Amino acid sequence: MPDEHTENIFEKELLKESIFVDRNLLSPHFTPKELPFREKQINEISSILAPLVHKKKPNNLFAYGKPGAGKTAVTTKVLNQLLEFSVSKNLGIFGSYVNCRTHNKKYRVMLKMAKDFYPEENFLGFSAAFIYEKVLDFARRGKDLVIVLDEIDKVKDVDDLVYSLTRANDEIKSGSITIIGISNNLMFKEQLDPRTKSSLCEHEMVFPPYNANELKEILTQRAQKAFKQGVVEESAISLASAIAAQESGDARTAVMLLLRAGEVAERKNSSKVTDEEVKKAKNKVEEEIILSMISTLPQQEQLVLLAIASLSLQNKGIKKITGHIEEGVLFSGEIYEEYTRISKAYKEETVSARWYREYISELEMYGLILTTASGKGIRGQTRLIKLGFDAKKIKDAIEKEIIA
Ligand SMILES: Nc1ncnc2c1ncn2[C@@H]1O[C@H](COP(=O)(O)OP(=O)(O)OP(=O)(O)O)[C@@H](O)[C@H]1O
Ligand SMILES: [Mg+2]
Q1: What domains are defined for the chain?
Q2: Residue in 252, 295, 366 to alter for ligand 1 test, most ligand atoms within 8 A of Cβ
Q3: Which helix H or strand E contains 165, and what residues bound it?
Q4: pTM above the 0.90 mark?
C-alpha cells in the first residue's frame, strides 16, 4: 500500500531541473540547419548538381575527408534543397540516400533505391536483375536520379555497383543517373578498378578537418540551443574544441564531448558545465570514438586488427635475446599468418603482404596500433606491433561488426 506520508522516491526526479533545454540537439543523429565553415563545400556540390535544373546530366562526384568533417551533413543538406526545389518547380529530379554501412552489397543498394523510387511497392525476394530494371524504368520516364552512396567504401562489390549504375545511365535515352560517393577512407580510391575510379571520380572534393576555432564556433552555436543559458562555461567550450581539434578536427567528437560533459554535470546535480566535466567526458568519448572508428574501417583492416587483438589476448610476447619477454608486442609476420587464418575462417579473401603492410600503416595512422622496427635484442629485422587499446574491447567490437 502506498503510504501517503512518505514521499515516493521518484518524486525528487520530477523536481530536478535539467541543465538541458533539448538534449537531442547534441545527438550524433541530429544535423543542424546551419553548417558554418562549409559554405565552400555547399557551393561546390550545388554547382556540380546545378545542370540538373536545366535537364542536363551532372558529373559524378566523389567526396572524401576524415570522420566528422561534415560530409554527410553537407551532402544531405544540398540534396534536400535540390529535391524541394524540384518539387516546387516540377523538375522531375529524384534522390536516394543510401547508407552503405547498412546496404553493403550491390543488391542491397539497388533494393534501397527501388524502395525510395517506388514507396508503394514491396521488392523483397525479387531478383537483382528485376530490381535493376525497375530502377532503370523509373529513370527511363525522363526522371533525373541522384544517388548518394554514403560510406561507399563499405560496399563489397563496389566496382560492380558503380559499373552497373554508369552503364544504366548510358543506356537510358531520357532521364539520368548521377552518383555521389562519400568516404572517410583515404585509401579507398586507390583500390578501385581504374574504370570505376574514372567514372566515380569525374569530380573530386576534399572535406578538410575543422580547426580549434571553427569547432569552438560550432560548439558555441550548439550549446546556446541545447543548454539553458549560462550553464556551459566558455572555457569548457574552448577545452572541448581544443581536444577535438587535436585528435582529429572532428565535429562529431566535439559535440559528443559537450553532451557527455553535460551528462557528467547532471549526474552530480551541478548546474554548470566546466573544464572539469569536459575532462571527465574525454575518457568516455575516447572509448566511444575508438569503437565507432573500428566500425568504419574497411573489412580487411578490421580483420588485420582482429588478428592483432586475438594474438594480444593469447598473452604472446616477444622473447628478447636476453630472455626477457615483452608482452603484447607482436611480430608483423605472425600477425599476417593469423590474419590469413581468420579471413579464411570468415570466408573473406586474403590480401597480399603488400596490402597488409598498407593496412598496418593505416591502422597506425589512426592510432589503433603502435609499430617500431625491431632494434637490438631481436634476431633479424622485422616490424614489431603493439595494440594501442584494450584487446578484449577491440576484439568484441570487431566480431560484432563482422557478424552484422
Ligand atoms: N559545419 C558544421 N556545423 C555544425 N555542426 C556540424 C558541422 N559539420 C559537422 N557537424 C556535426 O558533426 C556531426 C558529424 O558530421 P557528418 O556526419 O557530416 O560527418 P562526416 O564527414 O559524414 O563523418 P563520417 O566520415 O564519420 O561519416 C554531425 O552530426 C553534425 O552535427
Ligand atoms: Mg558521414
Answers
A1: 39-207 (3.40.50.300), 210-293 (1.10.8.60), 297-403 (1.10.10.10)
A2: 252
A3: helix 158-171
A4: no
